[in-house]
Structure formats: C-alpha cells, structure tokens
Amino acid sequence: MSNAMRTPAGAINVERYQGAVADGRFRRLWNANAPGYLFLLPWLIGFFGLTLGPALISLYLSFTDFDMLQSPRWVGMANYVRIATADPKFSAAMHVTLTYVVFSVPFKLTFALLVAMALNRGLRGLSVYRAIFYLPSLLGGSVAIAVLWRQLFASDGLVNAALSYFGIEGPSWISHPNYSIYTLVALSVWQFGSPMIIFLAGLRQIPQDMYEAASLDGASKFRQFYKITLPLLTPVIFFNAVVQTIDAFKAFTPAFIISGGTGGPINSTLFYTLYLYQEAFGNFRMGYASALAWILVVIIAIFTAFSFLTSRYWVHYDD
C-alpha cells in the first residue's frame, strides 16, 4: 500500500470511493425495482393502513376497557379472564358456531363434489350450467337472500306449504331452537358454487387413461372413484376444506338477518361473529369485542395449523 493511502486524506478518499460505489449500486437497484414498488404501493398502503394497522390497534384494545366514548383504560388480561370464566354467552356462541361448521362444511363439499362430477361428464352447455350453479355463491351472502330464506322457512313459508301438500305439518323452522341453526346450514350448502368450480377444475386434471385402465381391469365405478378420483383430488379437497371452514367461522349476515340481530331463539343462531358484533356495537364494549376477535383469530390459526400438520397423512401430491 502506498504512503498516500496511509495518510488521512487518502483514507478519506477511500471512504468517498466506497460511498460512491454503494450509492451507485443503490441507484441501479432502485432504477431496476422502482416500477415494481410503485405498482405495489396501493397494496402496501391498503395492507399497512387497512389490515395490519387496525389489527395491531385491536390487539392493544383487547387489553383495555374501551366504550368509544372515553379513552381506553388498560385492564391487562381482564377481558380474556372474563371470556374464559364468566361469560356464558361466549360458550353458547362457540357451541352454535362449531355446530354450524361441523354440519355445513362437509355437506357443502359433498354436494359440490357430486355436482362437479355430474358436470364433468361432458354435458352440452357446460359453461351455462357452471354459471347457474355458481350464482348462489355470489348471492348467498347478501341481505336480500337472507331475507328470502327467512320467508321460505317461516311458519307459513314455502317449505311448510310444500310439506302440507304431502300431509305433513312443518314447524316454524326459524322460530324453533332445535331447527333454526339447520336453516342456516341449508343456506350454506346452497352456496356450493365456489367449491364446485374448484372441484371441476381438479377433475379435469385427472388423466382419463387411468380410468380406462381401471375399467379394463374390471374396476367398478365406485372403486374407480375410491382408488383414483379421491386420492388425486385430495389437494383440491384440502384447499376447499380449509377455505370453507374459515368462511364458516366468519359467517355473520345470515344469522343476523334471520334472527333479527338477536341470535335467537334462545341463542340457537348466536354465531360467534354475531356475538362479537353485539358486544362491540350493541353494548359498546369495544375492548371486550377486540378480545373476542383475537380469540377467533387464534381458533382459526389453530385449525389451519392442525389441517396442514395432518395433511401429510391423507393429501397426495405428484410425488
């Protein structure tokens, strides 16, 4: 190394040179990636401003007593302790929600798979049938459909009118605590279009020569379904099961409309999200509602993690 490099001035020159190199490298990286960041900017603003930011604020509020009229007052774990030990409506809401999930998701996926298999047989006008069957998924979450469903299952509704034609006197489905939850399950099953489309896409990916080889070996249709269709369709079944279960945990509009926002009769339609809404905007316990929301996040996260951990035993991929 020369004597000039050992002098302070030489050291300064080296630092300036390294800084210029780093600055030039940063400029090249920025010029190369700036368009991508600009396209991502609306999403980043929405994510940090409308998703992550409110989520973190709600996490803070879950440890406070906040009624939206006064400043939040820190109470620590009091909200969570109350949920676990002194809130009977929490356990009632969890029971109703789990009942809804356990019945609605399997029935919806089974019905969607049956319709997808029927459409996969090469029907004429497949696109028309596909659009018609998908339409309930677009309309099912609307207030208008919930109101219509409420009229169908009323004591003098169309369902009881059809039963009376066969000499059967039907109950008031939405007013009886033993039946009201199942009217919501029926509404959920009716919205089978979204998983049906995904099942249909998965069925189209199964090679037909596998069915032909199985037929030559004498395999029945049921055995072909059990040995070929189901194993090759397990990734699609897994995806639909996770998505539909998460949606079932978050269901709100049908229960709100059919019960008039009360969750009745006798809390038989008190979905977890409906109870959360009542606490937040009915009783103005926003801190307590935030704690309820985060418990729901944890429940969904546990279910999703459990689904992925157990999927290695029954989901079959290409390898």
Strand content: under 5%
Terminal CA distance: 58 Å
Overall 3D shape: globular
User: Describe the biggest sheet?
Assistant: 2 strands, antiparallel
| Protein structure class | mainly alpha
Spatially, the strands of the biggest sheet line up as 1-2
Average pLDDT for all residues: 87
Write the H/E string, N to C: HHEEHHHHHHHHHHHH
Radius of gyration: 28 Å
Count of alpha and pi helical runs: 14
Helical coverage, percent range? over 70%
Please mark out the parts with pLDDT under 50 across 5 or more consecutive residues, or reply none.
1-5
How many runs of DSSP E, i.e. beta strands? 2
Structure, described:
The protein is mostly helical and 319 residues long. The protein has 14 helices and 2 strands; from the N terminus they run ααββαααααααααααα. The longest helix is centred in the N-terminal third of the chain and has 54 residues. The chain is globular. It starts with a helix and ends in a 9-residue tail after the last helix. 22% of the residues are buried. This is Sugar ABC transporter permease. One of its GO terms (cellular component) is plasma membrane. It holds the Pfam family BPD_transp_1.
